[in-house]
Every structure is written in C-alpha cells, then in structure tokens.
Design brief:
The chain is α/β, with parallel strands linked by helices. About 35% of the residues lie in helices and about 20% in strands. Helix 6 packs parallel to helix 8. The chain starts with a strand and ends in a 6-residue tail after the last helix. About 40% of the residues are buried. Bound molecules: iron/sulfur cluster (SF4). The site of iron/sulfur cluster has 12 residues, from loops.
C-alpha cells in the first residue's frame, strides 16, 4: 500500500497517471488529505467511484493515532504523542502545540530519537532510532489540526521543527514534508511562518540556503567557546562555533532572514558574565536574535538559573546590543523534557 502522504505533489501526480487518471486528481486528493483531513477515500466525493475504489485497493491516507494529549493547566500548550506503525516495536513520537494569542505553533519532530548526543537533551538518551517519513511528520500536524477543530479552536498557524531529532539530518523527508506544508492546496503556510532548528551541521545549513526558501533558521548554540560547546554538543567537534556563525551570516545574506541563536542557560556554566561578554563579541555586528532558554534539567549535574539571573543575563546581552529574548516556559507542567514521553511509551502496550 502506498501511503499518499509520503508523496510530494509531483509524485502524487505521477501516481495518479499510473492509475490512468489525469494530473489534476492529485490536487483534489491533496485537498481532501490536508485541508479536509479525511482518513479514507470513500468521502472524496468529487472523484469517480471507480477511482476511489482503485485508490482504496492500492493506497492509504490513514492518520497517526494520537495516544496522548496533555493540556497544560494554563491552557497555553498541549503535548501530544502519536503512535507510529512499526511492525515489531511500539514507537510513539512527540509534538507540542503552543498557544499564544492568535498564534498556534506546532513544534514537530523529524526523527525518532536523535544521534547528536547533546548533553542537556532527553531525546539524546534514546539514541538515533530512525528517520520519520514525510507522512509521519505531516501526521503530527494533521493530528493537531484535528484536535484543534474538535475543540472549536484555530488550527495551526506556525511551525517550528524543534521536536525530537535534527530535521536537516533527515533532509529529503523534511523537504518533502515542507513542500506540502507550504503548498496552497495543502496547509498553505508561508516561509515566514516556518522555522527549522539545527544543532549546527554546517553542510546541511548550506544545502538549505541553496533551496531558495526563506524559512527561519534557529541554531542551537548554547556555549560561547568550542571547549564548552564540544562538551555540551558533540557535533561541535566537527563543526566548531566559528564555522557555524559564518554559516549563519551567509544564511542571512542569502535569505534575508535573521537567524535565531538558541542558548540554553545552565546555572554557573552558560549564564556567567564572561559568557555574556563573549557571546556579544561572537554575535555582535550582524542581524540575529538570541533566544535564552533556562535548561530543563536531564540530570543532577545541571540546573536552571532563577528567573532573576535569567533576566540579568538577558539584560547584559541587550546592553551590549544583542536582541535577546527569554523563551516563555509554556506548559512546563506537561512538557517534561522533549523525549521523556516517548521514552515512557516505547515498549508499552498499545491500548
Ligand atoms: S538537542 Fe536536538 S540535536 Fe541535540 S540531541 Fe536533542 S534532539 Fe538531537
């Protein structure tokens, strides 16, 4: 069975042609799958019955079953787990919906687990299990839109690829999903509403800047020198900070999008006055933003600074001319660290 949500529009057109149909059927199917979010072909009423029968025999538009949806007490976040369809092991993938004014931001996962081994990350403990397919990436979004529609709220308006995994390491599937997210007959979300986060694999950033897209880029920086960053993020041993900042500058020059540097604040380690001074030297002089994130501790060796210390660090950066913001801790009661819920669900029985 061909899962049609694994196909980009040109691929779906080829599939329609292989059934003896015309290309325009692909756009009709796109709308049913992504705008009406149908889980089967029988209700695709603008297509002949014979075609619907042929599609039912050869293809699937099944959804990812949601197994958890945990709403934060403040109503500003919902954490989801969706079941994947692996034959031997029960896997689930996590996603988060953030609610802020009129904005509904989906934080999507792109891999099951992650192989980059960042010291502050719960997902890293799972190791790399596998890449998610385009249908599994899109399935998270469809599931969130279903959830939102069922409770009479707005569907997703913005997307960040900041869930489990390194999206740019799953490049083809990420790009296929992205083409569908941006397509006017599918989710119709423009580049300004989409951001991909990377731990800093420089060739992937270069590949992305060659695509001619202007999606937002967020670089997970988290340290101001190579020794510390190498400790926190092993990927730095291959792509040190200078090469990363250089890639960020080129991304800005190519796309016109200001790059965001994500910076995890670990008490006594990354939140010092020396760090603020060094960061401003490193990032000063080109248009970028720094997003400060108090660490969500994954072990007893690290803790988050208090709110006052976080604000003081932000003020120090701001005072040195850097655009620094503190990420609001939405839904901390349901979040845990990214990857925790999956670790809990893997191997548990499907109910
Ligand atoms: S922080 Fe991101 S890149 Fe690093 S291990 Fe976790 S999921 Fe992977």
């Amino acid at each position: 069975m061909q899962n049609l949500k694994d196909l980009t529009l040109p691929q779906l057109e080829e599939f329609a042609l292989s059934l003896g149909e015309q290309r325009f059927r692909a756009k009709q199917i796109f709308k049913w799958m992504y705008q009406k979010r149908l889980p089967g072909f029988s209700e695709m009423t603008n297509m002949p019955k014979t075609l619907r029968a042929a599609l039912s025999d050869r293809a699937s538009v099944a959804k990812l079953p949601p197994v958890r949806a945990l709403e934060s007490a403040a109503g500003d976040a919902v954490k989801f787990a969706f079941a994947l369809n692996d034959p031997d092991t029960y896997y689930a993938v996590e996603s988060v919906l953030l609610i802020d004014g009129e904005r509904r931001t989906a934080c999507l996962s792109s891999q099951l687990g992650c192989g980059l081994g960042c010291a502050f990350c719960e997902t890293a403990k799972l190791g790399f299990i596998r890449n998610l397919s385009p249908s599994e990436i899109l399935g998270q979004l469809i599931g969130m839109n279903d959830y939102q529609a069922a409770r009479g709220d707005k569907i997703v308006t913005n997307i960040v690829f900041m869930g489990m995994g390194e999206a740019l390491s799953n490049y083809e599937n990420f790009m296929a999903a992205l083409s569908i997210i941006m397509h006017e007959d599918a989710f119709n979300l423009g580049a300004r509403r989409i951001t991909v986060s990377t731990a800093g694999v420089v060739p992937h950033i270069e590949r992305l800047m060659g695509e001619g897209l202007s999606i937002g880029l967020a670089i997970s920086l988290n340290a101001w020198n190579d020794e510390m960053r190498g400790e926190l993020m092993p990927v730095n041993r291959k792509y040190p900070i200078a090469s990363l900042v250089d890639a960020a500058k080129r991304y800005y020059n190519r796309t016109g999008r200001r790059v965001t540097f994500e910076y995890v604040l670990i008490e006594g380690k990354t939140d010092t006055a020396e760090a603020a001074e060094a960061l401003s030297r490193l990032l000063g002089g080109f248009p970028c933003k720094v997003n400060l994130i108090p660490v969500n501790p994954v072990d007893s060796k690290m803790s988050a600074p208090c709110d006052g210390a976080v604000q003081k660090f932000a003020d120090e950066l701001y005072g040195r001319g850097l655009a620094a913001t503190v990420r609001k801790s939405r839904g901390r009661d349901v979040f845990g660290a990214c990857g925790q819920l999956t670790a809990e669900l893997i191997g548990s029985k499907r109910r």
